[in-house]
Specification:
By secondary structure, the chain is α/β, with parallel strands linked by helices. The chain is built from 31 helices and ten strands. 54% of the residues lie in helices and 6% in strands. The protein has a six-stranded mixed sheet, with helices on both faces. It has a two-stranded antiparallel ribbon with strand order 5-6. A two-stranded antiparallel ribbon has the order 9-10. InterPro entries: P-loop_NTPase.
């Protein structure tokens, strides 16, 4: 199920589509210039597919869509971008009269066709003065006719001149002015017999014309071009035909964080601000990094995840909506959020309904199950979710759904999506940073890994690059850990990086930080080192991740004795259990069946864990393997649902909790354990 199969159908995309439609409609509710909407999102968040959907949505109005990464070759500038936009906007639409841009079209032609730099400079000043005096329309006709007459006199009408003809007014005025000049009249009469240059050829000529000017001359020409363009648009929507245009025009810019994209946004913003007048342009730009325009406008340091606050849910006042954050009064910013569980569930249901009945045999409510498990695995990361759903339908008909899901996330499987997803999400990192990143995934939050200097072997450069990546809120996600804000890797990225870490060999002393045991040993030592948190819970977490079940069990057993003595609240102990059991399994890169794996690990525990601590050891074994209730206090910390995707071990957890509850005296403590047991008796999806 490729992403473009559901682009625009998620609640997220529908809300953004509605926002764009509301601003496109000329119903009087959004009069005035609409600030550009900047959509921020890291790699794989669905920016490009969303823009494609918006283009389709606005197919009946004047629309232009540009990929700034393709245009930004180091030679093109704002004028080239504007010319490309002008050509696309002037294309025929099924619903509205053709859009003509006479002033900007004539000036662009002068800049592209004139070989004399002095003539180009005079044309810029000519149009600037006309714009100031409100006679741009008349002046543009005169300028175009002047170029036309020169071209006809010298060598007939060249294709470059013809390329600009769709942008200018033409019609009776052009015929009338030219009819008194025989040679020009013959040239105009022969317009239909000349094959125009393509827009690309016109852009080449325009770019060539700028090569002979200074940067100041180019900036001046671009400013006047933008003024003329906006003036053309405004008149096109105000003249007689303009009343028929019930939608504004839409410009879509992908990869707007490029130098060319940022330069265009800054130039457009400056001209719009200077004009102080309304225009019918709605611009939506997508960027995987903050464009410099935004960086310069942001009021100080923006908190991690601040732009995600634009999303309102159905439970909020006014219902679900997107409310972009206004920056500096002239820029609206929204960050694309991951898909929520309902959205993943909706797409999962489509896949389940397409599968044969045999594939979902034995799973109660398979659509709900797949939605829950897949959301646990990807947390709604759009590219990873789409890749997984596509993989699920690529199996043979008889393959069970559980096996399909496991295969999609198991390295070495014919249907694995791991490398594909990591290449898409992290493919722009330097090889050196990419090589060390798995060890950062070992920590609960990668900031803890950054603080553990021993992970980086004294390499300051790599240390700083990883720290920059962790601070990038378009690569990491905001999280609350024990009430404190933290940045975490997207769950699917952390899972796939941990799978890489688990496959690195070399666990014999001395341990290397590039190995699983070595990374967790460094993190454990950092907890107890001077300046560390000293949190025994974090140390137990690292011990369990290293496979030291006895040490992790001992920590929880000692804490349980405090609960029995009344010196520790039972709820605090349950939270500690939830935290420690979220430690990743070293074997998460292999597909296992919950029952046999649990029995194998219990048999090992019986040889290393004292008998009085076995209930807690069994809780940790089952807790590391299984899918937990969504109300677990650390549900968002880490989840590994593939160990026990159907909750087979929930009965074991209830049994061990019941045995521990039997050792408690106070009703409040007893009730806390009973509440936890009831959660595991419920179907987790």
């Amino acid at each position: 199920m490729p992403r473009d199969a559901w682009a625009g159908t998620s609640q997220r995309d529908l809300l953004l589509s509605r926002w764009v439609q509301e601003h496109l409609a000329r119903d009087g509710s959004t009069e005035g210039a609409t600030p550009p909407l900047l959509l921020l999102g890291g790699r794989g968040t669905g920016k490009t597919t969303l823009l494609a959907h918006l283009k389709w949505l606005a197919q009946h109005t004047h629309t232009a869509a540009l990929d700034m990464a393709q245009l930004d070759d180091g030679r093109r500038g704002t004028a080239d971008v504007l010319a490309e936009i002008a050509f696309q906007l002037s294309a025929a639409t099924p619903s509205f009269p053709a859009l003509r841009l006479p002033t900007s079209g004539a000036l662009a032609l002068a800049l592209a066709a004139e070989t004399d730099p002095g003539n180009r400079a005079r044309a810029v000043q000519q149009i600037r003065t006309a714009l100031d005096e409100g006679r741009a329309e008349e002046e543009s006709d005169a300028l175009y006719l002047s170029i036309l007459e020169t071209a006809a006199t010298v060598a007939g009408l060249p294709p470059l001149v013809m390329a600009a003809f769709p942008l200018v007014r033409g019609g009776k005025r052009l015929w009338g002015v030219s009819s008194g000049k025989r040679k020009l009249w013959r040239a105009v009469r022969g317009l239909g017999s000349v094959t125009p240059a393509s827009p690309d050829e016109f852009l080449t000529g325009l770019n060539h014309g700028f090569q002979h000017g200074t940067s100041a001359q180019r900036a001046e020409a671009e400013e006047v071009l933008l003024r003329a363009f906006l003036d053309d648009l405004q008149r096109a929507y105000e003249d007689g035909e303009g009343q028929e245009r019930t939608w504004r025009c839409l410009v879509l810019l992908d990869n707007a964080e490029t130098p060319l994209g940022n330069a265009f946004l800054e130039a457009l913003d400056a001209v719009r601000h200077a004009r102080g007048a309304a225009d019918p342009l709605v611009l939506v730009a997508a960027a995987r990094k903050r464009p410099q325009l935004l960086v310069n406008r942001e009021p100080g340091l923006v908190p991690h995840g601040a732009y995600l606050e634009c999303w309102r849910t159905a439970d909020d006042e006014g219902g679900a909506a997107v409310a972009p954050r206004r920056i500096g009064g002239r820029l609206d910013v929204a960050q694309l959020r991951p898909l929520d569980r309902d959205e993943v569930g909706e797409f999962s249901a489509r896949v389940v309904h397409a599968l044969p009945r045999e594939a979902v045999h034995g799973i109660a409510r398979p659509a709900a199950w797949l939605g829950r498990v897949l959301h646990e695995l990807t947390r709604g990361q759009p590219l990873a979710t789409a890749a997984a759903l596509t993989a699920l339908v690529s199996y043979g008909e008889q393959e069970p759904l559980v096996a399909r899901v496991r295969g999609a996330f198991t390295p070495g499987s014919r249907h694995t999506i791991g490398q594909q997803v990591l290449d898409a999400l992290l493919g722009d990192l330097s090889p050196a940073v990419r090589h060390v990143l798995p060890r950062a995934a070992a920590a609960v939050a990668p900031g803890q890994a950054v603080a553990a200097n021993g992970l980086w072997g004294g390499g300051l450069y790599l240390h700083e690059r990883v720290a920059e990546l962790v601070r990038d809120d378009l690569r990491t996600e905001p999280a609350l850990i024990d009430g404190e804000a933290a940045a975490v890797f997207p769950d699917v990225v952390r899972r796939l990086l941990l799978q890489e870490l688990a496959q690195v060999h070399g666990d014999n002393p001395p341990l290397e930080p590039a190995t699983w045991s070595g990374a967790y040993e460094v993190l454990r030592a950092a907890v107890s080192a001077p300046g560390g948190t000293g949190d025994a819970r974090e140390e137990a977490y690292c011990r369990l991740a290293q496979g030291e079940l006895a040490a992790a069990t001992r920590y929880l057993y000692d804490a349980f004795q405090e609960v029995r003595d009344g010196t520790l609240d039972a709820a605090a102990w349950c939270r500690a259990l939830s935290w420690v059991q979220r430690a990743p399994r070293r074997t998460l890169h292999t597909a296992v069946d919950a029952g046999p794996e649990y029995e194998r690990l219990v048999a090992q525990a019986e040889r290393t864990v004292p008998a009085e601590q076995l209930e807690i050891a069994k809780l940790l074994i089952a807790g590391q393997l299984t899918l937990h209730p969504q109300t677990d206090p650390y549900a968002g910390l880490w989840s590994d649902p593939l160990g026990d995707p159907t909750g087979q071990l929930h009965g074991v957890i209830v049994e061990q909790l019941e045995r521990l509850r039997g050792q408690l005296r106070g009703f409040r403590q007893w009730q806390t354990f009973d509440d936890r047991m009831r959660l595991y008796r419920k179907e987790p999806w």
